[in-house]
Amino acid sequence: MAAFGSVFMPKMAVTNFENNQWSDAAIVSSDSIQMHPGAHVLHYSSTCFEGLKAFRHEDGSVHIFRMDQNIKRLAQSSRLLALPEIDEEQVAQMIKDVVAQFADDVPEPPGSMYIRPTHFGTEAAVGKAAAPSLTSMLYVLLSPVGDYFAGGSRALRLLLDETGMRCAPHMGMIKSGGNYASALQPTMQAKADVEADQVLFCPNGDVTETGAANFLLVDGNEIITKALDTSFLHGVTRSSILSLAADQGMTVTERDFTVTELLEFAAKPGVEAMLSGTAAVLTSVGTLIHNGQEHKVGSGETGPIAQKLRQALNDIQWGKAPDTHNWLTRIV
Ligand SMILES: Cc1ncc(COP(=O)(O)O)c(C=O)c1O
């Protein structure tokens, strides 16, 4: 299987914002786009994107998971970056149209079609460091994918980073390229130094998230995760897992917690920690690395609750359990 996100469908849906309006969406070749070298995005990072998935069911039908949530988040990211306001209905139609066109290429579970809506400022204006781009491009690119974390369901190793941060605290809830660039060096360093899979960013001891997933804890019948604020991405998977946990009778607690609390917690038998995200789905965390010491979380292996919640999510996505929350949009 090719690396996650390295294979693309040959066409994408695109619209351009010019003269204060969005053009009619078109399906065009996804080989290349044309942009002025002075485009706002290339200089001032006026860019945001989304990641969502379409799934194939056993009867051959194809369904997109929680598309409305990802479009809302794209609208929010665009607004907070002073990009042109997106037309949410148009974007929904673009996603549906391009997925319908490549419905035959949606892989069987556990694979899926990863959908990457992307919006960025195109105005040729290098003098606009402190002013928004008046034009933009929005496209929807498709990539058939398998598992994100090589090694499948192996429990992950996370380095706890208390001194750095993933991105500026007011930018965390924006899904923007610069945030990922900002997390790159610490993540590469953690891999090289302690063979960590990811960095769990805990600025001043406040446990937030990793470079591309939210962080959750399970203690008995309780699931605990950081309360929503501007400092981290409000994951659609996070919200789905919390709903499924509540469906299963678990107590859902959204609250801030510190590294000290986390390490005390990890030492208790039977606790679990996990990462949630569209790409990661729900993956157990087995080891936390802090100040050169390794702390096992519970058994250090993939836990039974993580497995059960992941299964409950996949069952809905794959059409094996009823879609009681109306999370799926049928395409074909
Ligand atoms: C920084 C970050 N946090 C959390 C998530 C999880 O968000 P979602 O569940 O919407 O994919 C992602 C994206 O996958 C992410 O990039």
What would your notes on this structure say?
With 332 residues, this protein is of the alpha+beta class. Helix content is 26%, strand content 28%. Strands 1, 2, 3, 4, 5, 6, 7, 8 and 17 form a nine-stranded antiparallel beta sheet that branches. Strands 9, 10, 11, 12, 13, 14, 15 and 16 form an eight-stranded mixed beta sheet that branches. The protein binds pyridoxal-5'-phosphate (PLP). The site of pyridoxal-5'-phosphate has 14 residues, from helix 5 and strand 14.
For the largest beta-sheet, the strand count, sense and barrel status come to: 9 strands, antiparallel
- Discrete helix count: 7
Shape: globular
Share of helical residues: 25-40%
Which small-molecule species are bound to the chains here?
pyridoxal-5'-phosphate
From the alpha-carbon coordinates, what is the Rg to the nearest angstrom?
20 Å
Poorly predicted runs: none
Beta-strand level of the residues, as a percent range?
Answer: 25-35%
Q: Which structural class do the helices and strands define?
A: alpha+beta
* Secondary structure tally: strands: 17
- N-to-C SSE series? EEEHEEEHHEEEHEEEHEHEEEHE
Distance between the termini: 26 Å
Mean pLDDT: 96
Multimeric state: single chain
